[in-house]
């Protein structure tokens, strides 16, 4: 955050509560935190005396609560504010780098809806010499310093490119540099949003430009603010709640106890969401208990009733949408973004909502379907009818096609209840009872959050403790702390748990209502307390930005919203300096460059993962998968030792070994061997100090719908398209027509006609293509038929000459056998003998 932004934020934060201190730099997301950086220190409190810094660092004004720090030497720098009185403030151990990264990419996006493209205006800036607008990311054009710097680096050979992570596409500037900027045109997309700006390895004064990872999706519009509409909010004194679209983190809705706010530009600007008068009472307008987002709009849960606020209306949902008119206790959407997935002939739900006894899935255009009742679940789980079984909570797991149902079971229901877990698959519509049972007090309410892993795993929390369930629920327990046996409330001045934040890298933050935070990672069973960052009385949330960085969102009593970057890596390094916890391995690499892979018939997929560790530790790579048992795999391990370090590389190959020849039901066998399987690579040992937890990806076994076949030689560019007709004489038509057939050639469908010598035999060569172009030749047998009914074709070989021992199927015999079917269905793999 810039100095100007920090000053505004501090004026809001300095109301009451305990003293805290923070730091910031001019580079966004603390990308540059080095000996070249100006580190801004801010103390929030009334007892400040002066800053205590090491001799290798200098402070601009030692006695000012807000000042600037520079460190001339890299390493751990211990910083602490000294205060008046016997108390002491906590110190931080800041890790200052000696990096040669000095410059950053700046981008401005211009949307063109008429052709669904986005122009990304790119230049280079030095955060230590940038204009305030550039530091706030509100600049519409580069500053004079940035123009000079960009032109200088361009002269040395610098040129940016935008590289997408999912589809592996590259976009380069189309024109020459203009006014110190490059312009790159990219298509608006929802399935290739993760992008990275990279340039050439060009240095200026020994300084390089850092690559920049960001999310750029199809722009979503916010709901308009209409004069005369009224605020909608949670009850007075409530904590903040938020909703966002998993694949579009730039669009967020935050519900506070005085207003509801929305942003579509990753926290840079906020507007209110209000509702028309005379639909809700004043009490109802200020009693939102849950909020969720979908393509249809913003869902609000108020007094057991679901409402939706769209671009055009605000209305109550009920029986007309196949929902109950009352009694709804929750609504949720997916937390993890899977843009691609394999779903066999169905539509994936957008939201899930539930009552105590029923679960509904919601689809586009406000279509809801009831999928489960507690009566069905009692039968499925063999629970006596006299026992009490209710829906406790519902959440989407990490698997893109599943839904988790948390069930509350009790008999007398006086003291304790047992929480069970059933996972419902939207593709197969099957339920699977999990090895999961948790006994809790009868009045406990548990909130789940699944972690980003292939095997099901989650954290579950009440007001005081966090329960972990790892590795398909085989490792379970209460998250431990150095003292108080895992009771986070006792370590946080008796505050209770507000929310749990989990990112794609395995980081987990537990935020208390008073903004104290605890940190751990997936598959880790204990947590550490982090330094205080925000005042105890300010209401806040933790969210993920489009640059995949963690932000605090603050909402103040004057209905103002402010965002602030949170340096999780620096904060955990500071805490770990005292703990001295080390990562057991030196490096963990793999060649999984995409999170989604197709495996078609006759193909195989190979991946490798490599771990480097100190000799005698005995680490290894674990390969795990989850889903239908439709794949076989072979693993090979290569092991090397050199200079006291071990390198162990595991290669795994996935394939199918299904024989589709001469089967009774070809399509049934194909369907049984089609599905989605999640795979993960992870090290055998792990710690909070490790940078990456694991690598998760999908293997979709089946036909890739993006693939298509073309006849080699045909194209749609090398000819002049015009109205072209040809005549088929009636004597050549199969149906013995009384007149000739006049056919119009379809240029759009077939492309340019292929020119051939009249005397040459034509043998079509079939190629397989996808959105990126040619893949391979199709080397299997295929059938060609004439779609207009002519029958004057001849063959250049016979069955006997081809070596057939018996008469094979022919076009004539198959069309006669299946004369009730269309020509394109008369002969296919299902008829093979």
UniProtKB/TrEMBL annotation:
Keyword list, A-Z: Cell membrane, Cell projection, Cilium, Disulfide bond, Flagellum, Glycoprotein, Membrane, Signal, Transmembrane, Transmembrane helix
Instruction: Report domain CATSPERE beta-propeller positions.
Output: 229-577
Superkingdom of the organism of origin: Eukaryota
According to the entry, every stretch annotated as the CATSPERE second N-terminal domain falls at: 102-187
Is the Kinase keyword given for this protein?
A: no
Annotated CATSPERD/E C-terminal domain residues: 729-820
Give the membrane topology.
Single-pass type I membrane protein
Q: Which GO terms describe its cellular component?
A: CatSper complex; sperm principal piece
- Family, per entry: Belongs to the CATSPERD family.
Protein's recorded name? Catsper channel auxiliary subunit epsilon
Instruction: Name the source organism.
Output: Neovison vison
| Upper classification of the organism | Eukaryota, Metazoa, Chordata, Craniata, Vertebrata
């Amino acid at each position: 955050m810039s100095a100007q932004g920090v000053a505004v934020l501090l004026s809001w934060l300095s109301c009451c509560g305990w003293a805290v201190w923070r730091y910031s730099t001019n580079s966004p997301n603390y990308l540059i935190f080095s000996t070249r950086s100006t580190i801004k220190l801010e103390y929030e409190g009334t007892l400040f005396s002066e800053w205590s810094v090491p001799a290798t660092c200098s402070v601009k004004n030692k006695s000012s609560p807000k000042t600037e720090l520079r460190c001339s030497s890299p390493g751990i720098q211990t910083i602490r504010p000294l205060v008046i009185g016997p108390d002491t403030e906590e110190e931080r151990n800041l890790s200052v780098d000696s990096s040669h990264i000095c410059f950053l990419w700046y981008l401005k996006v211009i949307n063109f809806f008429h052709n669904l493209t986005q122009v990304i205006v790119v230049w280079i800036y030095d955060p230590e010499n940038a204009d305030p607008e550039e530091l706030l990311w509100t600049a519409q054009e580069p500053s004079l310093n940035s123009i000079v710097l960009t032109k200088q680096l361009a002269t040395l050979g610098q040129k940016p490119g935008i590289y997408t992570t999912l589809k592996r596409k590259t976009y380069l500037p189309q024109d020459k540099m203009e006014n110190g900027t490059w312009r790159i045109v990219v298509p608006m997309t929802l399935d290739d949003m993760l992008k990275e700006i990279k340039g050439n390895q060009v240095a200026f004064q020994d300084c390089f430009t850092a690559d920049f990872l960001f999310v750029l999706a199809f722009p979503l519009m916010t709901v308009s603010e209409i004069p005369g509409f009224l605020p909608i909010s949670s009850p007075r004194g409530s904590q903040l709640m938020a909703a966002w679209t998993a694949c579009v983190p730039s669009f967020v809705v935050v519900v506070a106890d005085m207003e509801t706010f929305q942003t579509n530009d990753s926290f840079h600007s906020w507007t209110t969401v209000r509702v028309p008068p005379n639909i809700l009472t004043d009490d109802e307008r200020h009693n939102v208990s849950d909020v969720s987002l979908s393509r249809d709009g913003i869902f609000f849960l108020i007094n057991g009733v679901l409402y939706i606020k769209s671009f055009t209306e605000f209305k109550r949902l009920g029986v007309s949408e196949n929902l109950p008119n009352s009694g709804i206790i929750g609504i949720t959407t997916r937390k993890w973004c899977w843009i691609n997935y394999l779903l066999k002939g169905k539509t994936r739900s957008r939201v899930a909502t539930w009552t105590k006894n029923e679960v509904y899935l919601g689809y586009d255009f406000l279509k809801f379907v009831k999928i489960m009742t507690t009566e069905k679940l009692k039968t499925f789980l063999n629970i006596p009818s006299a026992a009490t079984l209710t829906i406790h909570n519902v959440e989407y797991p990490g698997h893109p096609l599943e839904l988790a149902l948390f069930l509350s079971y009790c008999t007398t229901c006086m003291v304790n209840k047992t929480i069970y877990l059933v996972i419902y698959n939207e593709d197969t519509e099957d339920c699977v009872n999990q090895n999961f049972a948790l006994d809790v007090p009868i009045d406990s309410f548990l909130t789940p959050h699944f972690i980003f892993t292939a095997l099901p795993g989650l954290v579950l929390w009440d007001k005081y403790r966090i329960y972990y369930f790892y590795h398909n629920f085989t490792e379970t327990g209460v998250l431990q702390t150095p003292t108080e046996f895992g009771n986070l409330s006792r370590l946080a001045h008796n505050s209770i748990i507000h929310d749990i934040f989990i990112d794609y890298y395995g980081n987990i933050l537990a935020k208390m209502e008073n903004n104290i935070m605890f940190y751990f990672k997936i598959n880790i069973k204990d947590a550490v307390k982090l330094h205080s960052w925000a005042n105890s009385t300010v209401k806040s949330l933790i969210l993920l930005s489009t640059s995949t960085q963690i932000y605090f969102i603050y909402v103040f009593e004057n209905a103002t919203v402010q965002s602030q970057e949170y340096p999780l890596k620096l904060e955990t390094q500071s805490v770990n300096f005292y703990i001295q916890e080390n990562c057991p391995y030196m490096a963990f690499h793999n060649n999984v460059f995409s999170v989604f892979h197709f495996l078609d018939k006759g193909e195989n997929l190979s991946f490798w993962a490599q771990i480097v560790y100190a000799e005698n530790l005995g680490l290894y790579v674990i390969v795990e998968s989850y889903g239908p048992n439709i794949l076989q795999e072979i693993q090979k391990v290569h092991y090397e030792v050199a200079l006291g370090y071990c390198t162990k590389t595991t290669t795994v190959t996935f394939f199918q070994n299904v024989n589709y020849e001469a089967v009774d039901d070809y399509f049934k066998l194909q369907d049984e061997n089609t599905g989605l399987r999640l795979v993960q690579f992870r090290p055998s040992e792990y710690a909070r100090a490790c940078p990456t937890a694991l690598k998760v990806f999908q293997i979709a076994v089946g036909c890739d719908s993006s693939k298509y076949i073309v006849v080699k030689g045909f194209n749609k560019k090398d000819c002049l398209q015009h109205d072209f007709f040809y005549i088929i004489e009636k004597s050549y038509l199969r149906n013995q027509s009384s007149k000739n057939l006049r056919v119009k050639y379809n240029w759009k469908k077939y492309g340019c006609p292929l020119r051939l010598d009249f005397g040459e035999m034509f043998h079509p060569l079939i190629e397989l293509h996808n959105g990126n172009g040619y893949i391979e030749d199709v080397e299997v047998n295929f059938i060609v038929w004439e779609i207009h009914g002519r029958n004057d074709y001849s063959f250049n070989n016979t069955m006997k000459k081809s070596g057939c021992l018996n008469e094979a199927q022919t076009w004539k015999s198959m069309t006669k056998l299946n004369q009730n079917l269309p020509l394109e269905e008369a002969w296919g793999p299902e008829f093979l003998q």
